[in-house]
Each structure stands twice: as structure tokens, then as C-alpha cells.
Design goal:
single chain; alpha/beta; 13 strands; two-stranded antiparallel ribbon
């Protein structure tokens, strides 16, 4: 479509994408537990008319805390601060279906959605971290298929609770004394394998109807969950061919669930390292690597592959490794796929993936970054990117000041916000409550039912 517009989120990974970002000049090592840091990042993103800020989450003392910051603060608490400091920017928080209950989660996100005037999204994840399991009284991680079975039912219950109030259920008529039209507030009466929830929710709908559903799993089970529920997907792709194959698979599965697959917003992760010349950008990359712990990169890759680090020779290609039945299957596939395709040594593989996560890294001038983004966007394989600047907030500020103007001049990115809700930013229609009368406008097919 001629008026198709790029979508951009900022993934606020503490001090930045690189494990050494907290050591960069100007970085604050305490930023990971300072809400003012996230507010500053959000304000820069809003100045750049980004769709949203995104916060990941793991409910444990995770990653390699002796070497780098980790996601520590609970996302909805941080996003509540961000909501108070911004007007338009979307607010997407991660919450696990493995260690939450549907009613509490539905209420928490609905409350934030109302408080922010309809700017919230929920990133649906399952949790495969063994230390998290032990924090919630379990000796081991639930099997992959079972986690996703629970997640699918969990999302069904949450969306039903968000739908339990029709849009006009709140009356608040002083003259008549009618406060709520209880005929438009409905128990959901859910009885399933994992949950029994009567409902209704005690929180009305927001101005966008309900929070946007986001999903980030790339495994077969994760893709099924996304195809069934997700309105936006955070994916992993290192080539246009990968991105095109993923988009085709997701949209086909969504149509099999009776949805309009073309309406799902697909946003692969993208790390950017930007400078005024290509040489300066490479020098910035080398400086970040000089500050990085080699131990961290090796153990991070070994952890994703679920192998003993001693099995990995930094200057040799990956040995044969069996795909784990559990764990981070999306990133496992990305790492192994790149290693086999490009015959990378383990050292090169660590460098390719930034020593942090398994997302694509682009290094260059603002023009080179804009060229890359435009090429991917115009291919139709993606709708935008979940941006992960090398260092925060500096890397985001450079992107907003020097890349965003180029994207605008090329006619693919907004010059201002056209609406106030996250659904408006993503081009998603207001979903009707499933309990609304048949004569009411139908819910958009791309939302979950």
C-alpha cells in the first residue's frame, strides 16, 4: 500500500544492547534500577514519534549479574512512571503466563491501560528459566508444550476478562443515579484445564478497548500462540529470506485460525551502532567489544545452546549440537542457523550477535542504517523493528536525531502521531467486546476472540 508506514519500538535493555553498555562513557551503572533512566529513554522515543517502549522481564536473578545489568524492576511499575511522563508513546510490558494468574494480570494491565489513556500492550511469554521456577515453588521447568498449552488458555481467559465489560457499561449519570449498566458487564464463566475463572473483571475497558496482545516466541509452539492471539510479534531475523519465510508462516497460521493474517504487525529485533562515518561506527563497535567480558559472550552463547562452555572452541566452528527440547529455541535456531550458513567460528558468532542476544546488528552511518531499514520495510517482510540501540540513551538519541529524519524524508515514517492509543499507532482497530450484541460493530479479525 502506498500509505504503509514503518513501525518502530525501542527495546529498553537496561543500559543498551551490548553487555558492556553500562561501562560506556556517560552510562550510569545504576540505570537498570532507576526509573528516571527509562523515562528519559521514553521521552527521546516519543520525540522520535516511536510507536512504543518495550520492557522485557525475567522473574529471577538471571543472566550473568556479576558482569552486566539485568531486567530487575517489574515492567508495569516502570511503565506507570513512563505513562505519567509521556502523552503518546505506547507502553509494552512483558508478563509471564507461567508464573502469574489470569485475573491479577488482566486487572494490572487493564489498570495501566486506563491510567495511560489506552497506550498499553502485553507481551505474552512463557518462562523457561530454572531459577525462576524455584522462585515460585517448582523444582523444575514445566515442559515446553505444556507451558504453551497453559499460555494459550491463559490468553483466552485474559482477553475474555478484558471483554467482560462492554464499551458503554459505565454510565455515571448523576441525574438518574445510574452508575454502571450491569447488564453490560458479564461473567466469563471460564472452566478449562488450567483455570477456572468466573469473572467479570472489576475494571472497565479503556479508550482502546483492551491492551494490544504482543508475542515474541519463534518456536513452533510460540508461532501457534502468536498466530492465534498476537496483534504484534517481536521476531528474530538475520536475512530477508528468513523474515519473509517467518511472515508467510505466521500469516498462514493466523488465517487457519480464522484471522486476517495480513493485519499482524511483525517487528524483528534490530541493534544499531551509528556514527557520522562508517569507520567511526566500527570504532565505536570495537570500543564496546574492548569493554566487554569475553567470559560473558561465551557463557551466553553456551547457555542458549544448552552446552557446557568447555565444548566450545572460540576459534573453531560450532560442534554438532542437538536442538534442546526446551529453553530459548528461537535464539538457538538463530545462532545455529547463522553459524552453519556462514561457517562462523564461535568467536565470530559471539561478535555477530553482539555478545548479548540473538538479534541482527547493523553498523554504519545514519544513511546506511536508513537504507537497511528501508530495504527490509519495502520488501514487505517486516512492518518495522523492535530497535535495540547499542547504548542507552545515547544510541537512541543519535537514531532519533539523524536516522528518523531520513526515514521521514523517504516517506515511510510518521512526522507526528495520528492518534493517542497504541492501537492507533499500530493501525489496529478498536475491538468490540465478545459479549456485545450482535448488532454492534464486529471486532477486527486480527484481534483474538
Amino acid at each position: 500500500m502506498a500509505d504503509r508506514q514503518l513501525h518502530l519500538n525501542v527495546n529498553a535493555l537496561n543500559s543498551g544492547f551490548y553487555s558492556s553498555a553500562w561501562r560506556a562513557e556517560g552510562s550510569d551503572p545504576r540505570a537498570f534500577v532507576d526509573v528516571r533512566h527509562y523515562v528519559r529513554v521514553a521521552r527521546i522515543a516519543e520525540r522520535g514519534t516511536f510507536d512504543a517502549i518495550f520492557l522485557a522481564d525475567v522473574p529471577s536473578f538471571a543472566d550473568r549479574p556479576e558482569l552486566r545489568p539485568f531486567q530487575a524492576l517489574e515492567p508495569t511499575i516502570v511503565l506507570a512512571h513512563v505513562a505519567a511522563a509521556t502523552e503518546h508513546l505506547g507502553l509494552i510490558g512483558t508478563a509471564s503466563t507461567t508464573y502469574n494468574d489470569p485475573y491479577n494480570l488482566a486487572r494490572r494491565f487493564a489498570s495501566l491501560d486506563i491510567a495511560s489513556n489506552g497506550r498499553v500492550g502485553w507481551n505474552i511469554v512463557t518462562t523457561a528459566d530454572a531459577s525462576a521456577s524455584r522462585n515460585f515453588g517448582f523444582d523444575e521447568v514445566e515442559a515446553h508444550a505444556q507451558r504453551y498449552e497453559r499460555a494459550a488458555e491463559f490468553a483466552d481467559v485474559v482477553t475474555a476478562l478484558w471483554d467482560s465489560w462492554e464499551d458503554d457499561a459505565f454510565v455515571g449519570d448523576k441525574a438518574s443515579g445510574r452508575f454502571i449498566d450491569t447488564s453490560r458487564v458479564h461473567p466469563i464463566e471460564h472452566r478449562g484445564r488450567h483455570f477456572d475463572v468466573r469473572g467479570p473483571l472489576n475494571v472497565p475497558r479503556s479508550s482502546q478497548g483492551r491492551p494490544v496482545l504482543v508475542q515474541a516466541g519463534g518456536s513452533a509452539d510460540g508461532q501457534r500462540l502468536a498466530a492465534r492471539h498476537a496483534e504484534a510479534i517481536f521476531s528474530v531475523a538475520h536475512s530477508l529470506e528468513e523474515a519473509q519465510a517467518f511472515a508467510a508462516a505466521i500469516r498462514a497460521q493466523a488465517r487457519a485460525f480464522g484471522r486476517r493474517g495480513d493485519d499482524i504487525v511483525i517487528l524483528p529485533g534490530l541493534c544499531t551502532i551509528i556514527a557520522s562515518t562508517a569507520a567511526e561506527a566500527r570504532r565505536r563497535e570495537e570500543e564496546l567489544w574492548a569493554l566487554a567480558s569475553g567470559e560473558y559472550g561465551l557463557k551466553r552463547v553456551a547457555g542458549i545452546l544448552k552446552v557446557d562452555p568447555a565444548r566450545l572452541d572460540l576459534d573453531a566452528e560450532l560442534p554438532e549440537i542437538e536442538r534442546p527440547a526446551d529453553g530459548m529455541q528461537t535464539f538457538f535456531d538463530a545462532l545455529v542457523g547463522a553459524a552453519r550458513r556462514d561457517r562462523l567460528t564461535v568467536r565470530q558468532l559471539i561478535r555477530r550477535f553482539g555478545g548479548s542476544t540473538g538479534h541482527r546488528v547493523v553498523v554504519g552511518t545514519p544513511e546506511e542504517i536508513a537504507d537497511d531499514i528501508e530495504t527490509w520495510f519495502r520488501s514487505g517482510a517486516v512492518d518495522g523493528f523492535n530497535l535495540m540501540p547499542d547504548v542507552l540513551p545515547d544510541g537512541l538519541e543519535v537514531f532519533v536525531d539523524h536516522v528518523v529524519p531520513l526515514l521521514r524524508r523517504r516517506g515511510i515514517f510518521r512526522t507526528g502521531y495520528g492518534g493517542r492509543t497504541l492501537r492507533a499507532h499500530f493501525g489496529l482497530a478498536h475491538p468490540a467486546s465478545r459479549f456485545a450484541p450482535v448488532s454492534a460493530p464486529p471486532a477486527r479479525a486480527a484481534t483474538s476472540a
